[in-house]
Write a structure and sequence with these properties.
single chain; mainly alpha; Growth Hormone, Chain: A; two-stranded antiparallel sheet; globular
């Protein structure tokens, strides 16, 4: 019996291509599309790739109608068994089409109309209005973050609680804020920035009113929890507005200006809040804050537009055209962001760097300067203010420098390396023979804050390596890493200090720690910052490859 001739690789590949085309044809026919829509043009050469979309479209209007109908059909629920599929009508020629619709030409060239100066000025004016509408909500984010620390004495007196309960009441904000960054990214992509910001600001305002009205400490915890939930849905949608309303080369600068506005809220929650509490009481201060929050939510709902296309304006040059996603697609987008290993790089960078910043500036910096450098509490607070001032100036400056040079990763790496060097110098100076004056120490802390402000480049880094449709999910996921590090690193530092108490107490009742305890604690700062630096160097090598 004659043996069957073995087919070549090209013959097997063409047979597989024909089977795929046949399956695709019948699948589209079962969905109800006309037969002419199911034919997929195939190249004559077997080595060429198929062209898609099909070439039988006469003009962009017909092509747009086809894809919109296809999208609607695929998102519609499954038809009941035994029922005939609904037939889709072939799109007719539109009278508004200014193109020549005929079957002869295969490609149609469309001449784009140049964007006029009036359109650009209208979009710029509208973008400034949108940014102005988010200033007050973001000021309230930082205001609520530090407000309990200013009115801690009357709160302890009214509710008859100890310092540990007050600390738990203040930290509830950060715990809620940390774990709601992922839902904030999903809602930002699903509902859009306008609804997310206005609803979050209103919810935080109601929490502020409840906190001021609270008759017991339990109700105060409920109000603080509501404040934390509300403010969690403000920052990530603001970053999404930066993506849709402005060109990508301005993203880092806008992130720095946003942090500058937020620190204004922290300043308002210091001396002005203390003065208002002394004059009208801390409950009235939170009542006024809640009323201002409701007004800010109303302004945001009226003035914010999710994108220039929603306001009937042209999209900026280079900015992606982002459409509002469904809840399912937004959730899948967040899961896709979390599954990509490259997105864990800004997550861990922000966790290590911001955890060190919060551990020093927000927790143990004042105690370190008092116990190791021998400074009084007032001078230690002044030096920490110098660090905050450096961050206040550095945030917009670093963003502008990264946008100006176009070397975001290089600027980020240099800033983290400088921050680590200054941190080592700050820990090394007390044990050395080098004399340190107060102005020199003030300049050192100011430079430390200036270099620490490079943490704002985490969000442009996360946005640049993801699809614009998932911009909210990407920035929300990376933002969660920073607050998670801000909760873990100070706790580890304090755990190491507990075994190095001297037994003495300060005038404020705080235990004094040994200098060796701070040396061990600073090793945690060095390790967290070095992790961020190594990940940035890895990112530079990956970009060059």
């Amino acid at each position: 019996m004659r043996a069957r001739r073995r087919r070549t690789f090209g013959q097997r590949r063409r047979s597989e291509q024909r089977r795929r085309r046949r399956r695709r044809f019948h699948r589209n026919r079962e969905r109800g599309f006309p037969r002419s829509w199911c034919r997929i043009p195939w190249p004559r050469s077997a080595s060429a790739s198929p062209r898609w979309p099909p070439q039988h479209f006469r003009c962009p209007i017909h092509e747009g109608r086809f894809w919109s109908e296809l999208r609607r059909r695929l998102q519609s629920p499954l038809q009941a068994p035994g029922t005939a599929p609904a037939r889709l009508k072939r799109p007719r020629r539109e009278s508004v089409c200014d193109l020549t619709c005929s079957s002869v030409p295969r490609t149609v060239q469309v001449q784009e109309q140049p964007v006029t100066h009036k359109q650009t000025s209208d979009r710029l004016r509208r973008s400034i209005i949108v940014l102005s509408a988010v200033i007050l909500p973001y000021i309230l984010v930082y205001f609520h973050r530090v407000a309990p620390a200013v009115v801690v004495d009357p709160i302890m007196k009214d509710f008859a609680i100890d310092a540990s309960t007050v600390g738990l009441l203040a930290s509830l904000y950060f715990l809620v804020y940390t774990f709601l960054q992922v839902p904030a990214g999903i809602l930002s992509d699903w509902l859009g920035p306008r609804m997310t910001i206005s609803a979050g600001t209103a919810f935080a305002a109601l929490g502020s009113l409840l906190f001021g009205f609270a008759p017991t400490i339990e109700w105060a915890f409920v109000g603080r929890f509501a404040v934390g939930v509300g403010v969690s849905f403000i920052f990530v949608p603001i970053l999404r507005l930066h993506t849709t309303w402005f060109e990508p080369r301005h993203f880092a600068t806008l992130s720095g200006l946003t942090l500058l506005v937020g620190n204004t809220g922290a300043l308002l929650a210091s001396y002005p809040l203390a003065t208002l509490s002394a004059f009208a009481g801390w409950r009235s201060a939170f009542f006024i804050t809640g009323a201002v929050g409701l007004l800010a939510a109303l302004i945001a709902a009226l003035l914010i537009k999710d994108s220039p296309s929603a306001a009937g304006l042209e999209t900026p040059a280079g900015a992606p055209t982002v459409q509002k996603a469904t809840f399912r697609s937004a959730t899948l987008g967040m899961l896709g962001v979390m599954r990509r290993p490259v997105n864990w790089v800004p997550f861990l960078i922000f966790a290590g760097l911001y955890g060190t910043i919060m551990g020093f500036q927000g927790a143990w910096g004042s105690a370190f300067l008092q116990d190791v450098y021998g400074l009084p509490p007032v001078d230690a607070s002044t030096l920490l203010f110098a660090m905050g001032l450096g961050m206040l100036i550095g945030c917009p400056a670093v963003g502008w420098l990264a946008d100006r040079t176009g070397r975001l990763t290089i600027v980020f790496t240099v800033g983290v390396a400088l921050f680590l060097t200054l941190l080592v110098l700050l820990e090394w100076l007390p044990g050395s023979t080098v004399p340190v004056s107060r102005p020199a120490l003030w300049l050192l802390l100011f430079s430390l804050g200036l270099s620490a402000s490079v943490f704002i480049l985490t969000w442009p880094m996360a946005r640049a390596q993801n699809d614009p449709q998932a911009a909210g999910s990407a920035t929300g996921f990376s933002n969660m890493g920073g607050f998670l590090g801000g909760a873990i690193v100070p706790a580890l530092f304090g755990k190491l200090l507990e075994s190095h108490k001297t037994g003495a107490l300060t005038t404020q009742g705080r235990p004094v720690f040994e200098a060796s305890g701070y040396e061990y604690g600073f090793l945690i700062f060095f390790a967290a910052t070095a992790m961020s630096l190594l990940l940035l160097l890895f990112s530079i090598l990956r970009e060059r490859r």
